[in-house]
Design brief:
It is a single chain. The chain is built from 6 helices and no strands. It is an all-alpha fold. The longest helix has 10 residues, at about 1-10. The radius of gyration is 15 Å and the shape is globular.
């Protein structure tokens, strides 16, 4: 979740995290001072992005299919409900991820 993303950055377990504005403003002011905003969007569109690289890149289509099929699996449905996507995940056209790609390049 978004709080865990912020925590991972604070502990050095991640170099970068994405959080919704509601999460950001709910953080203690001291915690926010320890983090830096690299970019802010007001587009109102968010994606749960999964990236595959390295040793799993040859299985990207299989992983995509698994993620997009979570709504058909009871365990997957539980996870989807927890992340607020009860109708499931869908593949996003790469052109819609240009803003995320710019952040990754920082």
């Amino acid at each position: 979740n978004h709080l865990l993303a912020a925590k991972a950055v604070l502990t050095g377990d991640a170099d970068l995290g994405f959080v919704f504005n509601e999460t950001w403003v709910s953080l203690d002011a001291r915690t926010r001072k320890e983090l830096s905003e690299l970019a802010v969007t007001s587009q109102g569109v968010a994606f749960h992005c999964f990236m595959v690289g390295g040793e799993l890149v040859d299985r990207a289509a299989e992983i995509s299919s698994l993620l997009c099929g979570m709504a058909d699996d009871p365990a997957g449905m539980t996870v989807l409900a927890e992340i607020g996507r009860p109708r499931g995940l869908e593949k996003v056209d790469p052109s819609r991820l240009q803003a995320v790609m710019k952040l990754i390049a920082l």
